[in-house]
Amino acid sequence: MKKNYRTAFNRLKKIGVPVFIHPDAEDRFDISGEEPESTNWVNYWDSPNGWEFGVHPKIDSILKALGLYCEWVNPGHLRIYD
Questions:
Q1: pLDDT tens-digit series, residues 33-51
Q2: Hey, which bits of the chain come out as E strands?
Q3: DSSP of 21-33, one letter per residue?
Q4: In angstroms, rounded to a whole number, what is the distance separating the alpha carbons of residues 40 and 54?
Q5: Interatomic CA distance for residues 23 and 72, integer angstroms
Q6: DSSP designation for 43
Q7: How much of the chain, in percent, has pLDDT values that exceed 90?
Q8: Where does residue 50 rank: exposed (0-12), middle (13-18), buried (19+ CB within 10 A)?
Q9: CA 62 to CA 7: how far, in whole Å?
Q10: What's the whole-number mean pLDDT along residues 19-31?
């Protein structure tokens, strides 16, 4: 995984975002929408005030600072891209 991806993975994990490496995309990482704590960070079906497309603004801020963004793959997870 590239350095900016590793950094983002570690920062997100540290604040409690449910991140994981999907076997189909080992050069990137994903955020789970299916863990008990997921709705604190991401929600495919609901976007609380201040969230964009169901993503907590802290996630967007961390990713943007590293030249990354996330996109829903399906309601169960988001993938990180540069």
A1: 999 999 999 999 988 888 9
A2: 19-20, 30-32, 69-74, 77-81
A3: --TT-TTS-EEES
A4: 10
A5: 17
A6: -
A7: 83
A8: exposed
A9: 9
A10: 88
